Amino acid sequence: MTALTAIGDGLREGFFMFWETFWALVLGFGLSGAVQAFVTRGQMERALGREGEGRLGRATFLGMVSSSCSYAASAMAKSLFAKGADFTAAMVFMIASTNLVLELGIVLALLIGWQFTASEFVGGILMVALLALVSRFTLPHSLVESARRKLEPGHATPGEHQHADMPESAGSSLAPLRVRIRTLAGWSDAATYAMADITMLRREMLIGFGVAGFLAALVPTHVWSIVFISHQGVLTSVENAIIGPLIAIVSFVCSIGNVPLAAALWKGGISFGGVVSFVFADLITLPLLLIYRKFYGGRLTLWILGAFWLVMSVTGLVIGALFSFLHLVPTTRPIQIVPESFAWNYTAVLDVIFLVVLAALYYLYRNRSHFGGGVGYAIDPVCGMQVEMATAPAQAEYQGNVFWFCSDRCHTKFARMPTRYAKGDLAGQTTEASRSREDAMKNPEQSEETVVDVVCGMTVVPSTAAAHRSQGGSEYHFCSLGCAETFDANPSRFAGVESERS
Length: 502
Description:
Blueprint: H1 3-38, H2 41-49, H3 55-64, H4 70-82, H5 87-99, H6 102-112, H7 114-138, H8 141-150, H9 175-181, H10 184-218, H11 221-227, H12 234-251, H13 258-268, H14 272-280, H15 286-296, H16 298-325, H17 346-366, E1 377-379, E2 386-388, E3 394-398, E4 401-405, H18 408-416, H19 418-421, H20 432-442, E5 451-452, E6 459-460, E7 467-471, E8 474-478, H21 481-489, H22 491-495
Helix pairs in contact: 1-6, 1-10, 1-17, 2-3, 2-4, 3-5, 4-5, 4-15, 5-7, 6-7, 6-13, 7-14, 7-16, 10-13, 10-17, 12-14, 12-16, 13-14, 14-16, 15-16
């Protein structure tokens, strides 16, 4: 086999893995975008900020309906913890958001079988329970309190945007959400979330499908036997379940990008439980461990690594044994993971349909300002994720423009090389309100007056504000529902703030 032939085989295998799962990816990202647009980050923070026995259940559910990106999940978990959520609940949210999501399950089913989808959802619930148990008996309270003090406003990372604490009550009105669901503005925001997630995860997916294609096409089976013990009964199960997370740590591929790698490992000979533990371990890849160290400190990060590795390995072992007992483990392994050529079948039909869906999402995303969307949102210039400005973990100002970020990681990368990211469509990113402010400065006699959002300090135009409130005879206008909900929790705190017209 020549080098060019080998490269061609690897690229072909990777492409057809992508082709086989394209429609599922668009469906998953589309549904995730809708949930993120209509269930605000502020609502999630309030739900997990409440005490009670149901907090882990709430964390699991909210994780399931949030973005599947590991980096976004880690930033959200840190924000939840900083605002008072239980540390274990924050970790559970992170596990659920990367392992109990629809797109992951569909792609697993398409590439290696429905049994792996079932194992992920059953195993995900088991992993949540095991983490709660491990946390109860091994999590040092002193490390948690030290990490929480580090994240308090007075110790925030430079450039991190601080907002008023979210209320503990979750009793906000759902009426604004019902209205948004019926508007093109709301759906354009949902489309922007979907396109932003695709943009943010494109590198992981490219690496995942590319590397998996080369592994599946070029690595002989006997090579895998050097890495994975086989035909040794219990020893095989234990070794594979332990080595699975290790491969994930050094692969650097997280989120949905590790599913094609799991398919290549399954073809290569790793056990069923080993595949399960590998897929779960996208939360302890080396880049994420470095992020945890920055968030929580070195000692708590070591606990996260040890606890997650233990829980993931034990979950893989238990799920492998359970599915074997139930005769649900596939008895044969694929000679090839995907077809070698195009065929006009249900996959092709679905791919064509969802190519049209993707085009519609892109159209809504590119024209969101025309449909009234984008109010209260910004695009992270580093990773492309859409963030709520009222609850963004960090922000920075550069050359007179303000940028918002989904995580401290993106803010740090921007700070190191601002000229690389502060350009193109994202330079001086603005909402409808701030665009109106610019128009007002140019044409003061023809433009509507603007007011200040008393919660976050942003300038908004009353007619295009995301929310409005009346208090003490005064009218207040807000850039986002998150700011309005913060105001609702304690109006007296903000009612005395002057909301002068610009």
